[in-house]
Amino acid sequence: MASQSNTRREFLKMMGVGAAAISAGVAAQGDDAKEEVPAIGPQFFVRPEELTLKFRHEGAERGLSFGKYKGAPQAWRTECRAKLAELLGFSSPAPCKARLLRSATCGDVTIEAWVMQVADSLSIPAYFLSPRGGSRKAVMAIHGHGQAEPCVGAGDDYHHMFALNLAQAGHVVLCPALRGFGVLGDVARQQENYCLDYWSWDRGPQFSLVTDAFLYGKTLVGEHVEDLLRWEQWLSDVKGVATLDVAGISYGGDLAITYPVFSERVRRIYASGSLGSFSVIFSRCYNAPAHCIPGVLKWMDRSDIAGLNAPRPIRIHYGEKDVVAPDNNSASYNETVEPAMAELRAIYRAFNAEPQVSLRVTPNAVHEMENEDLRKFLAG
Predict the structure, then answer these.
(1) Distance between first and last Cα of the chain
(2) Distance of CA 106 to the CA centre of its chain
(3) pTM for this structure?
(4) Using an 8 Å Cβ cutoff, are 62 and 300 in contact?
(5) Which residues pair with 98 in a beta bridge?
(6) Phi, psi of 109 (to 5 degrees)
(7) Contact (Cβ atoms closer than 8 angstroms) between residue 209 and residue 102
(8) What is the rounded distance in angstroms from the CA atom of residue 71 to the CA atom of residue 90?
(9) CB within 8 A of 270, min separation 6: which ones?
(10) Contact by Cβ (8 Å): 318, 273
């Protein structure tokens, strides 16, 4: 190996000397020997204003949309639910064990930090909140883009500590951390030279946790639904919770209407900052890609997914000012909300449950949870 290395070094040295000699020879011939290369001015190259740039994907088929379905409502639900599972890459998860890390108190609320081992390569945390007086009502609190910790009192943001607020109001609450967020920002962090991240941009916002899942026929939404079902089973096995309500905001609102489709324990659903059509959330509202379900608009939209929960009571919530704007990458209260609500009510009507659908728009609010309205709804 040493002789090969020396030979390579000598070859490169020779080439360097040769190149220098050639350059010197060319220089000696003078400027007349050089061929002039004409410069291309910037005015030659194509400019955006010379193109037609008004593209958008259109013509969603929504082949399994309730409004197009010719069979009975129950048959639609069976077929649409099966197709949704396929699009999500969803499969029913097996129960997993969890261990208690530590506990703390916040006033009259005890907060426990639990870790569940979902695979040899991955464990996921959740916070269990219980009021001192106990409660018969349980809530799955699902955070949006951000972290679980502000939901349980680490600091105020658009979640407005809604998990802690519910526990203070007498509910037992489980608030899981979602893959791709907070301490799960990079689920391959301990695997050298790998990066599967989402809301942790140490290397830039590539969202590799989402795009890598697509290669394997999986989605981040589907994996989150499976994790929530694992935690739901744990609540039943360890904490004795037979039924529960669900509350989520933003991406957590998406999960609040999607995960219960595959649950038999969920009683009521509160979804904040969700439900408008998938058709605008990227191209118009500029959302991040956690919501993405490849091919979904060929078969259904958010209103159909929410409708699969009929006849459970469902409340849709928005901030009045959470509208499309250059500085708002949420824009949940957009022009697709009204038709989506009409579609949702039509589905519930077919199941004789239209009064179970309600809408709340908080005046002067942006993309944020309204704790008072959430508490009132879950008290029903």
Answers:
(1) 79
(2) 29
(3) 0.89
(4) yes
(5) 116
(6) -115, 130
(7) no
(8) 25
(9) 245, 246, 247, 248, 256, 314, 315, 317, 374, 377, 378
(10) yes
Helices (H) and strands (E) in the chain, counts: 9, 9
How far is the C-alpha of 85 from the C-alpha of 92, rounded, in Å? 9
Separation of alpha carbons 40 and 55, rounded Å = 30
Tokens of 6: 């020396």
What six digits make up the tokens of 353?
């449950």
d(CA 239, CA 233): 10
Question: Which tokens belong to 144?
Answer: 């949006």
At 173 the three-state DSSP class reads strand
Please report, to the nearest 10 degrees, the dihedral formed by the alpha carbons of residues 223, 58, 287, 311 taken in order.
-50
Identify the structural domains of the chain with CATH numbers, from first to last.
66-378 (3.40.50.1820)
Q: Which residue has the tokens 């040493």?
A: 2
Q: Tokens 């595959």 sit at which residue?
A: 262
Tokens of 76: 């639609």
The Cα–Cα gap between 159 and 256 comes to 14
- Say which residue the tokens 């959330």 belong to: 281
Q: Cβ(220)–Cβ(180) under 8 Å? A: yes
- The first and second tokens of residue 202, run together, are 């140490």
In angstroms, the CA 256 to CA 271 distance is 6
Question: Residue 192: CA atoms inside 13 Å, Cβ hemisphere, count?
Answer: 0
What would the two tokens of residue 15 be?
Answer: 């080439």
> What is the token pair recorded at 173?
């609450």
> Which residues are within 8 A (CB) of 299 and not within 5 positions of it... i.e. 6 or more apart?
61, 62, 63, 64, 65, 80, 83, 84, 87
pLDDT tens for the chain, 380 residues long, are 444 444 434 433 444 444 444 344 444 455 555 677 778 998 999 999 999 999 999 999 999 999 999 999 999 999 999 999 999 999 999 999 999 999 999 999 999 999 999 999 999 999 999 999 887 799 999 999 999 999 999 999 999 999 999 999 999 999 999 999 999 999 999 999 999 999 988 888 899 999 999 999 999 999 999 999 999 999 999 999 999 999 999 999 999 999 999 999 999 999 999 999 999 999 999 999 999 999 999 999 999 999 999 999 999 999 999 999 999 999 999 999 999 999 999 999 999 999 999 999 999 999 999 999 999 999 98
